[in-house]
């Protein structure tokens, strides 16, 4: 034999085999291959087959030539020698759109060849492709999960390319280069998707490697932008005048050392209010207080940086209400309350802008009449009621002066010339059993019509305690008197207690024979 033909191993590496003696078919030639297939590609055809089970199989020779007549012998065309046990060969450097015929021969260790198994195929040029990429939504808040989508289509028809391998590459803000994030296979629509959880701004592009049928493609670069998640709280949401509400903001992911700004909305625009730098826990806080009554609106903003967009919290409000006036406070609002109590015939003592003991008890009397919680403090409910009060009604109608004590409301009315002149809070009999000097008694204030029959202009010390300037109205020692302890509830042994300062002012009017009516409303 004397033949020279190129040989291509299974890996596709070309070699040259020189055969010096023409082949001779054996009396019993080797068994042919089976299941031969030909897959056309761009300037190439890929052949696949199944080898026989011959024990002396040395390899396979693939021979090709143009046209539709397959090579009849191993030297009838261009040959490729494939070593056993390979079952594939790629015939390259062909001309696209040209018909080729292929014959595959097995050969044994003696150099004998089988009968050929043939196929014909036409190499086809690779289809140009177009690869696009998008991210939805393009801007997200930290913690959200945008979706990266790539789509591969034919450049000529726009038809989807399914079953193709797509690589997604990403570059996170702050890093130097792109790296492959994943490799995915296109679906029937030519699409691959990747759900992501970006912590920072991230750049993406996609690639498709060339195949025998489809050319390589690369997409443009898209960016997934991330806003920090900012959570603001305020405690409390409703504050009294000059009381601070604590505003706290937390930024995710952590940005210690970055500046955040508290803004307030008014006059149709946002205005700077205060700013701080985030601490190591990525939080900042402010105390927000004002004397102005009403609702104010705020938000916290953070500027963009190298790895995130700027962000802001949702708008939140802080409502400032009128302060609760308590014992010891002073100011113009105290003066206004004292003046109003005085005008409504309560007894705040000296009207001097100072909320003292008398002011507290005048407020308690007002709250009793208006069925409000009896605290002695002027909260916003009590304040509002001062300008829309309940007008107390007398039980009796007559001329002159008299006293009515309503044990249900725990108040006393001093009536002058048929009209209420002063309203005082009282503490009457508790209804409890008590013991004194071996005797058992019940702490009951008698009800009915009485008259003042005895007065003491000073301290009276009885077996039940001290009575300041008592004015007795019923036999058995029942008197209207001053006391150092006048709670909001019935607490006496049966007398009608008012405060010592109030008794000082009322005593001159509690004249002998002054009518006293005691009842439950």
Give an overview of the whole structure.
The chain is built from four helices and 39 strands. Mean pLDDT is 93; it is low at 1-27. By secondary structure, it is mainly beta. The longest helix has 13 residues, at 357-369. The strands form ten sheets. Strands 11, 13, 14, 16, 17 and 18 form a six-stranded mixed sheet that branches.
Distance between the termini: 137 Å
Q: What is the alpha-carbon Rg in Å?
A: 52 Å
Mean pLDDT across residues = 93
Total of helices: 4
Count of β-strands: 39
Helix content: under 10%
- Structure classification: mainly beta
Q: How can the largest sheet be summarized?
A: 6 strands, mixed
Beta-strand residue percentage = 35-45%
State the shape.
rod-shaped
Pick out the low-confidence regions. Answer: 1-27
Helices and strands in order:
Layout: E1 3-8, E2 14-19, E3 34-41, E4 44-50, E5 57-66, E6 78-83, E7 88-91, E8 100-108, E9 117-121, E10 129-136, E11 139-141, E12 147-154, E13 165-172, E14 179-185, E15 191-195, E16 202-208, E17 217-218, E18 222-227, E19 229-235, E20 238-240, E21 245-252, E22 259-266, E23 269-277, E24 283-288, E25 294-302, E26 311-312, E27 316-321, H1 332-343, H2 357-369, H3 380-386, E28 402-406, E29 411-416, E30 419-425, E31 433-436, E32 439-442, E33 448-451, E34 454-455, E35 459-462, E36 465-474, E37 478-483, E38 496-499, H4 500-506, E39 515-519
Parallel strand pairs: 11-18, 20-27, 28-39, 37-38
Antiparallel strand pairs: 1-2, 3-4, 4-7, 5-6, 5-8, 8-9, 10-12, 12-15, 13-14, 13-16, 16-17, 16-18, 19-21, 21-24, 22-23, 22-25, 25-26, 25-27, 28-29, 29-30, 31-32, 33-39, 34-36, 35-36, 36-37
């Amino acid at each position: 034999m004397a033949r020279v033909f190129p040989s291509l191993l299974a890996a596709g590496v070309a070699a040259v085999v020189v055969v010096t003696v023409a082949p001779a078919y054996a009396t019993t030639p080797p068994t042919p291959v089976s299941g031969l297939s030909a897959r056309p590609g761009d300037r190439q055809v890929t052949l696949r087959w199944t080898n026989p089970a011959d024990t002396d199989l040395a390899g396979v020779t693939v021979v090709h030539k143009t046209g539709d007549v397959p090579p009849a012998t191993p030297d009838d065309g261009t040959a490729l020698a494939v070593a056993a046990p390979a079952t594939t060969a790629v015939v390259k450097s062909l001309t696209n759109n040209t018909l080729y015929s292929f014959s595959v021969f097995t050969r044994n260790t003696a150099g004998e060849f089988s009968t050929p198994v043939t196929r014909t195929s036409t190499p086809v040029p690779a289809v140009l492709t177009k690869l696009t990429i998008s991210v939805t939504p393009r801007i997200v808040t930290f913690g959200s999960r945008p979706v990266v989508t790539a789509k591969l289509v034919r450049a000529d028809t726009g038809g989807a390319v399914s079953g193709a391998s797509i690589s997604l590459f990403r570059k996170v803000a702050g890093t130097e280069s792109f790296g492959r994030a994943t490799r995915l296979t296109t679906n029937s629509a030519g699409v691959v998707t990747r759900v992501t959880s970006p912590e920072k701004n991230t750049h993406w592009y996609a690639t498709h490697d060339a195949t025998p049928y489809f050319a390589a493609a690369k997409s443009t670069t898209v960016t997934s932008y991330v806003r920090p998640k900012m959570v603001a709280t305020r405690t409390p949401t409703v504050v009294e005048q000059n009381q601070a509400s604590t505003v706290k903001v937390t930024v995710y992911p952590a940005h210690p050392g970055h500046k955040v700004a508290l803004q307030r909305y008014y006059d149709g625009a946002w205005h700077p209010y205060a700013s701080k730098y985030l601490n190591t826990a990525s939080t900042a806080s402010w105390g927000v207080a004002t004397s102005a009554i009403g609702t104010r609106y705020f938000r916290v903003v953070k500027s963009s940086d190298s790895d995130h967009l700027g962000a802001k919290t949702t708008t939140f409000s802080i409502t400032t209400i009128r302060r609760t006036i308590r014992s010891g406070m002073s100011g113009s609002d105290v003066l206004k309350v004292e003046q109003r109590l005085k005008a409504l015939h309560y007894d705040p003592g000296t009207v001097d802008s100072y909320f003292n003991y008398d002011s507290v008890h005048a407020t308690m009397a007002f709250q009793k009449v208006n069925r409000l919680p009896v605290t002695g403090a002027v909260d916003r409910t009590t304040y509002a009621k001062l300008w829309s009060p309940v007008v107390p009604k007398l039980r009796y109608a007559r001329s002159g002066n008299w006293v009515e004590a309503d044990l249900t409301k725990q108040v006393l009315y001093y009536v002058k010339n048929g009209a209420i002149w002063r309203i005082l809070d009282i503490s009457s009999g508790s209804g409890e059993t008590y013991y004194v000097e071996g005797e058992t008694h019940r702490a009951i204030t008698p009800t009915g019509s009485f008259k003042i029959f005895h007065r003491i202009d000073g301290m009276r010390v009885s077996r039940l305690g001290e009575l300041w300037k008592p004015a007795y109205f019923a036999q058995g020692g029942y008197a209207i008197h001053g006391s150092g302890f006048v709670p909001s509830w019935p607490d006496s042994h049966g007398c009608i207690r008012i405060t010592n300062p109030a008794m000082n002012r009322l005593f001159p009017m509690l004249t002998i024979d002054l009518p006293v009516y005691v009842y439950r409303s």
